[in-house]
Amino acid sequence: MHIRTRDASGPRMGKTRRLPCHTPTWHAVHHGSTRLSTSTCCTHTLPSLELRAKGPTTGLQVRAPATSPWCATTATFVFAGHGSGGAVVFGVVDELLAKTGVRAEDVGVVIANSSLYSPTPSFVSLIVNRYRLRHDVVSHNLSGMGCSAGIIAIDLAKHLLQEFWTMHWRAQHGICDDGSGAPGHVRAGGEHGEHHPQRLPRQQPPHAGTVRTHRGASDRSYGCVTQEEDDAGHVGVSLSKELMSVAGEALRTNITTLGPLVLPLSEQLRFLATVVLKRVFRADVKPHIPDFTLALDHFCIHAGGRGVLDELERSLKLSAWHMEPSRMTLYRFGNTSSSSLWYELAYCEAKGRIKKGDRVWQIAFGSGFKCNSAVWKALRAVDAVAVGDAGSPWAQDVDVLPVHVPKVVPIDDDQASYKTAA
């Protein structure tokens, strides 16, 4: 859920306020606004929760854990029905408003994200009704977007904030639009002067750089992840054998767009050279895989499974240190869908890895098939001790992690008895 608040006192550079668990660090300020965020996931049945609870180092966070410094809170929700889901949502929003000092009537934009569960009325309507939000609140409810929905919500919030900021700036400087699509006019001192794009402010509010790739035009990509009902009447998600191939194609398309935005010139020239040799001179050369570690310091890859992480580690030529946040998130919390990126970022913070100026690349895959990226830049260093004291989900485990996770492990007696009983 992304909540944007508008300051009743008028336009000003709003300060970053203390959000649930700890103070945001990364995208510190938006002009006259504060953005709060949470991702939700609903992929667990009650039997699966009972099984997860038996493990010594696995569990489901029902309360809102600490998250990335640009996200107020990320929570994995369990929905046995609209009522219990609402109870969890209300608890998160109550804590959010209390710790930030934001009034419900000041909320101007709400974005809710639920990977699979889509009730009627929606979660956004549930929040609007509970907190009696304004009648003109801009609300968006994202459902069915899969494990990449968190970045989609970030991208939507980014564009909404840019739009509101531009509209506010134009209104503040007396620039109007006559509705014809032509440039408006500046009215000052009774004179009319044409408005040129050069007069718009050059410095925009800070935000994440996002790149979204959608391969849904391909039937093979579209059908590789689907929600279906099996012969026993149980609804679940079906994954095709072509998933890894489809994910690789989507990733290549995504990094082709992302690369020129973040990579140093030397890497771009190497990549361009291989493309020219292959396409123009028909040379038999291997495609150059850019070294993203030259431009990015930390990697948060959706913890969808060991196979996904192994493939991306090989494709992007990442080290075990770079893959550690994703692998430990999968080990500790399992596949939490779109919220896994924020657990991984919280891991980097808890380990004290985030320094001023560091850049983090979040990569998420989702049904459709989608591959979405977000790149963040740290505005200041993150104090690992302060993050732990603020309630990080890694506070109890950070000193013993990472641990070696074998590829094959025996099934213990408790899990075996559970499967036999089921």
TrEMBL record:
<keyword id="KW-0808">Transferase</keyword>
<dbReference type="GO" id="GO:0009922">
    <property type="term" value="F:fatty acid elongase activity"/>
</dbReference>
<feature type="domain" description="FAE">
    <location>
        <begin position="87"/>
        <end position="162"/>
    </location>
</feature>
<keyword id="KW-0012">Acyltransferase</keyword>
<dbReference type="Pfam" id="PF08392">
    <property type="entry name" value="FAE1_CUT1_RppA"/>
</dbReference>
<protein>
    <recommendedName>
        <fullName>very-long-chain 3-oxoacyl-CoA synthase</fullName>
        <ecNumber>2.3.1.199</ecNumber>
    </recommendedName>
</protein>
<comment type="similarity">
    <text>Belongs to the thiolase-like superfamily. Chalcone/stilbene synthases family.</text>
</comment>
<feature type="region of interest" description="Disordered">
    <location>
        <begin position="181"/>
        <end position="218"/>
    </location>
</feature>
<dbReference type="InterPro" id="IPR013747">
    <property type="entry name" value="ACP_syn_III_C"/>
</dbReference>
<dbReference type="GO" id="GO:0006633">
    <property type="term" value="P:fatty acid biosynthetic process"/>
</dbReference>
<dbReference type="InterPro" id="IPR012392">
    <property type="entry name" value="3-ktacl-CoA_syn"/>
</dbReference>
<dbReference type="InterPro" id="IPR013601">
    <property type="entry name" value="FAE1_typ3_polyketide_synth"/>
</dbReference>
<feature type="domain" description="Beta-ketoacyl-[acyl-carrier-protein] synthase III C-terminal">
    <location>
        <begin position="296"/>
        <end position="377"/>
    </location>
</feature>
<feature type="compositionally biased region" description="Basic and acidic residues">
    <location>
        <begin position="188"/>
        <end position="197"/>
    </location>
</feature>
<dbReference type="GO" id="GO:0016020">
    <property type="term" value="C:membrane"/>
</dbReference>
<dbReference type="Pfam" id="PF08541">
    <property type="entry name" value="ACP_syn_III_C"/>
</dbReference>
<dbReference type="InterPro" id="IPR016039">
    <property type="entry name" value="Thiolase-like"/>
</dbReference>
<feature type="domain" description="FAE">
    <location>
        <begin position="210"/>
        <end position="279"/>
    </location>
</feature>
<feature type="region of interest" description="Disordered">
    <location>
        <begin position="1"/>
        <end position="20"/>
    </location>
</feature>
